[in-house]
């Protein structure tokens, strides 16, 4: 067992354990494993803004039992643990991943760490057994060690904030590794679980508006983020519009075929010198789908009237619209003004509070009940591909067909046999007109890697 764990560390799939994890710190009180009992022991990586949002959501999830949180700034992890009554906190993400009682990990760290941490979670079973044995110092017949070994070999299930990885190659590898280790991976695209968008989806599915003709999405932040956030953050399409691109695909229930995007800097002139889509704070997108329909999206980093999140779907029989949400329904009526007393919710933390709770409940239910996750790694990959295509379109000022990027995906694969399989998948995923079914292609691409 030691050799197996050592080889994992050497391969880079699992980071080397810290001295504390190897039993050099006082032993912690072990928490009874919960998944078989209908609840899930959860570890959280990241106590920043989004980590706290997810902790708040987990607090409303009866089947989730958060037990440890990590953050490089330990004081933040300590404060979060105290506020939400978690028994443990740490400055090391690997202590969360390799905790013997953690069954699922919420990855809320910066994007550049996601792929590495996903692989570490999926491989954590073998290493967790080693660490538990080292801490316990009992022979293999020890009931605690036996419990740890039987539970840990399945690896840790993963709920990952978007993106799974910053690049396509790393995303594919992370998804495939999870399939190989038989762990569930969910991409956190919370708008799918928002009651308003869910109602729009239901109206489309139930044909309440007839057949959809066109979709319009509007997404505008209340204020631009700091320069330091934008620099190296992947740009407007990957960081912000990716949610709208995913929502357009989700609502249309058809795969995108081509995309046209334009981007500009209208708000924060300090970012104009940044490379590629990082220099944009405003963008417009048109996306064509395999069913012949179109979606239009406008995004902007600033709306002085609040967080603007609207959707409109025109159908052959009717139209359905979702408007902005407000903290209350109070309205003022005077000689010179009639309208809401307050501005819309100020940002995503409050606007999508219900959605964050719903997606956490959905993932935990998938674990407890053995169901597929409702927003898969493949969904995350397709969202990333759409964002990359939008960036290419804006930079080159032209329509981009998704078949172009899919050809590039084939070239990204490391092994020659996989390249050949990829090209077969590419050919089989085209329709009679030559347009690519992106969802089918990605599914085939992932399956070749271990699905």
From TrEMBL:
What are the boundaries of the signal sequence? Answer: 1-16
InterPro entries per the record?
Answer: Gfo/Idh/MocA-like_OxRdtase_N, GFO_IDH_MocA-like_dom, NAD(P)-bd_dom_sf
Q: Name one GO biological process term.
A: NADPH regeneration
Gene3D superfamilies associated with the record: Dihydrodipicolinate Reductase, domain 2, NAD(P)-binding Rossmann-like Domain
One GO MF term attached to the UniProt entry: oxidoreductase activity
Q: Keywords in UniProt for this one?
A: Oxidoreductase, Signal
Q: Which residues form the GFO/IDH/MocA-like oxidoreductase domain?
A: 197-320
Please list the residue ranges annotated as the Gfo/Idh/MocA-like oxidoreductase N-terminal domain: 40-126
Name the Pfam families on file: GFO_IDH_MocA, GFO_IDH_MocA_C3
- Give the CC-aspect GO terms: cytoplasm
What family does this chain come from, according to its entry?
Belongs to the Gfo/Idh/MocA family.
Q: What is this protein called?
A: Inositol 2-dehydrogenase
């Amino acid at each position: 067992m030691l050799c197996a764990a050592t080889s994992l560390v050497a391969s880079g799939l699992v980071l080397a354990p810290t001295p504390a994890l190897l039993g050099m710190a006082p032993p912690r009180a072990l928490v009874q494993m919960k998944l078989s009992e209908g609840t899930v022991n959860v570890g959280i990586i990241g106590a920043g803004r989004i980590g706290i949002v997810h902790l708040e959501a987990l607090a409303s999830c009866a089947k989730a039992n958060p037990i440890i949180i990590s953050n490089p700034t330990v004081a933040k992890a300590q404060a979060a643990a105290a506020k939400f009554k978690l028994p443990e906190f740490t400055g090391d993400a690997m202590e969360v991943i390799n905790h013997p009682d953690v069954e699922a990990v919420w990855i809320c760290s910066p994007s550049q760490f996601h792929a590495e941490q996903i692989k570490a979670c999926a491989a954590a079973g073998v290493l967790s057994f080693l660490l538990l044995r080292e801490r316990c110092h009992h022979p293999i017949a020890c009931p605690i060690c036996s419990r740890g070994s039987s539970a840990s070999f399945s690896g840790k299930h993963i709920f990952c904030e978007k993106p799974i990885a910053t690049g396509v190659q790393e995303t594919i590898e992370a998804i495939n590794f999870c399939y190989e280790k038989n762990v569930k991976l969910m991409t956190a695209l919370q708008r799918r679980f928002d009651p308003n968008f869910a109602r729009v989806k239901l109206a489309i599915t139930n044909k309440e508006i007839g057949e959809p003709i066109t979709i319009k999405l509007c997404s505008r932040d209340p204020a631009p983020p700091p320069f330091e956030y934008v620099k190296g953050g992947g740009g407007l399409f990957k960081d912000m519009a990716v949610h709208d691109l995913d929502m357009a695909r989700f609502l249309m229930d058809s795969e995108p075929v081509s995309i046209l995007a334009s981007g500009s800097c209208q708000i924060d002139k300090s970012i104009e010198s940044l490379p590629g889509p990082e220099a944009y704070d405003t963008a417009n997108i048109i996306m064509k789908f395999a069913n012949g329909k179109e979606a239009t999206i406008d995004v902007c980093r600033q709306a002085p009237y609040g967080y603007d999140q609207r959707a409109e779907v025109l159908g052959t029989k009717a139209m359905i619209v979702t408007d902005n949400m407000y903290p209350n329904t109070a309205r003022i009526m005077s000689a010179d003004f009639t309208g809401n007393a307050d501005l819309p919710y100020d940002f995503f933390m409050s606007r999508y509070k219900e959605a964050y709770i719903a997606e956490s409940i959905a993932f935990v239910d998938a674990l407890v009940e053995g169901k597929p996750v409702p927003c898969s790694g493949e969904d995350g990959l397709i969202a990333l591909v759409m964002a990359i295509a939008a960036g290419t379109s804006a930079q080159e000022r032209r329509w981009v067909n998704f078949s172009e990027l899919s050809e590039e995906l084939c070239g990204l694969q490391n092994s020659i046999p996989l390249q050949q399989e990829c090209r077969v998948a590419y050919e089989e995923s085209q329709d009679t007109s030559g347009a690519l079914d992106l969802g089918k292609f990605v599914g085939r691409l992932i399956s070749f890697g271990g699905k």
